[in-house]
Amino acid sequence: MPGQKAPEETRREQILTAAHTVASRHGIDGLTVRAVASRAKLSHGLVLFHFKRKDELVTALLDRVLETTFLLTVSEQVLELPDARDRFVAAIRQEMDRLSQEPRRMRLFFEYWALGSRHSRVRTKVSTALSSYRAAFRTFAEDVLRTDASRFSDVTPEGLAAIAVSLIYGCAVQAMIDPAGFDISAYRASAQGVLGHSGTRATKRGPRVLAAAIPA
Amino acid sequence: MPGQKAPEETRREQILTAAHTVASRHGIDGLTVRAVASRAKLSHGLVLFHFKRKDELVTALLDRVLETTFLLTVSEQVLELPDARDRFVAAIRQEMDRLSQEPRRMRLFFEYWALGSRHSRVRTKVSTALSSYRAAFRTFAEDVLRTDASRFSDVTPEGLAAIAVSLIYGCAVQAMIDPAGFDISAYRASAQGVLGHSGTRATKRGPRVLAAAIPA
DNA sequence: TTGTCTATTGACCAATTGTTCAATGTATGT
DNA sequence: ACATACATTGAACAATTGGTCAATAGACAA
Fold first, then answer.
1. Could you count the other beta carbons within 10 Å of the beta carbon of residue A199?
2. Mean per-residue pLDDT, B62-73
3. Which residue of B has its CA nearest to A165?
4. What would the CATH number be for the domain defined by A8-58?
5. Cβ-defined contact of A177 to B131 (cutoff 8 Å)
6. Distance B62 CA to D17 C1' (A)
């Protein structure tokens, strides 16, 4: 007995959110049409009515994952930091904290990343998402290099942005697999040390604002 | 008609190598008992005779993957570098090159990493492998901090080692998904710039040996 | 030879999967 | 009221999966 109808886009959204929860909990392997349908309290036939192939559902979910994973939103307090290096480091720390607190999303991303080696569509999407994420950090990196060219020789803005991404994702990778043994705070401090603080002249102001902007 | 026998350990090895090739090509999803058996030219029943459960096969393969992925072997030329920072950077560059040239193994590792969030046995193995890999870099990191404490304030050996791991794996992650768009050489140069070269005093000797040790 | 042990095979099973489709309900227009 | 369009359901199907098991072939000892 077919149930009630629902507006077009609502159903797709409903199915996608169900797919997101399922994939978050059981991985892409566990993302079956029936599991999604059950989660959304729909028949599995209906899921395949709105997404003609399972592949389409998987790809649509990828879009959603990438949108929420690679959205770099820096708080105003960070942007107001006077020193370019402080801004750069603060943005990195903020992202490290954010992603470390969303392990499921992180895991899902890496599953898609691995999938990308066999599915060209997935690869393209992940690739461009990583590129734009890097681009977001390049703005900060350019400021750093402009005001601090002496310390970083041979460092390009694009390269420095890529390093920022590595530091963030490397932190998540190591922290998630071993939450007890991996010392996140030591990692953050070391990352900051390697990239360099704002120096002695801003010691009194910078770090304090930083601590307020990034709750531990 | 049952075929010929084979020495005990030979069969397990044979099956494991077959499993490795299958998983390398088609991922852990594609690692089916029948696919492995077919690859090893055996019956699928025999695979389950030597590995009572599929889980056991997957875990045994993980050991093999971790052994070959996280084995840090630094060339003698790197160890002979006079400057601690040069050794550190050279070891990192060497690993970046090595792992970037083995994308399949890299992908397989991340699949296991993601699997670790649901399988505690896998998680434990991956976790300890990452720990020992970090420990290998900590030796270099300690030397760096001992000779260069001024530049790296608040940086701990463990933290610096973790950053090395992040730089290496971050490079592989970004380079593999977008081989064309990601500038590896710029990344390497930037990483070296951030960590700092040996400075002006060793410019004549260090870098040249480095270039010889790490073929581009 | 005879017998025992075990490696090996392939048939078989139950469960799960993606996908199709006829049937049926709901909404909307005329 | 009637018809048309379409969202929705669940049965059904073929393919694939991990796993079991009886039958059998090889190796080796007595």
1. 13
2. 95
3. B170
4. 1.10.10.60
5. no
6. 21
Helices (H), chain B: 8-26, 33-40, 44-50, 54-69, 76-79, 84-100, 103-115, 120-147, 157-177, 184-195, 206-213
Q: How far from A55 is each of A51, A122, B167, CA to CA, in Å?
A: 8, 10, 33
Note whether A117 and A123 are within 8 A (CB).
Answer: yes
Residue A131 CB contacts under 8 Å (≥ 6 apart), including other chains: B178, B181
A162·B182 Cβ contact <8 A: yes
Q: Tokens 């002249």 belong to which residue?
A: A201
Write the pLDDT tens digit of every residue in B135-175.
999 999 999 878 877 777 788 999 999 999 999 999 999 99
For strand D, which nucleotides have at least one atom less than 7 Å from a protein CB?
7-11, 16-27
Q: Is the pLDDT of residue A178 over 60?
A: yes
Given a contact cutoff of 8 angstroms between Cβ atoms, the answer to whether A194 and B195 are in contact is yes
In the 24-83 segment of chain B, residues within 7 Å (Cβ) of strand C are 42-46, 49-50
d(Cα A118, Cα A115) in Å, to the nearest integer?
A: 6
- Per-residue pLDDT, averaged over B182-189, amounts to 95
- In the structure, what pLDDT confidence band is assigned to residue A139 with cuts at 50, 70 and 90? very high
SS3 of residue B169 by DSSP: helix
Q: What pLDDT does residue A149 have?
A: 73
Query: pTM of the prediction?
Result: 0.89
Question: What is the average pLDDT across A140-151?
Answer: 84
Mean pLDDT over residues A141-159, rounded?
85
Name, in order, each residue with C-beta under 8 angstroms of B165's C-beta and a sequence gap of 6 or more.
A170, A174, B130, B133, B134, B137
Give percent of chain B with pLDDT exceeding 90: 75
Shortest distance, CA B10 to any CA of chain A (angstroms): 31
Class of domain B8-62: mainly alpha
Contact (Cβ atoms closer than 8 angstroms) between residue B168 and residue A167: no
Q: Which long-range contacts (CB under 8 A, 24 or more apart) does A38-47 make?
A: A40/A14, A40/A15, A42/A14, A42/A15, A46/A11, A47/A15
Residues with CB under 7 A from strand D: A 1-6, 8, 11, 42-46, 49-50; B 1-5, 31-35, 44-45, 48-49, 52-55
Joined tokens for residue B135? 């420990």
Q: Do B159 and A195 touch (CB under 8 A)?
A: no
Inter-chain CB proximity A158 and B186 less than 8 Å: yes
CA/C1' separation A26–D5 (Å): 38
Mean pLDDT, all residues of chain A: 88
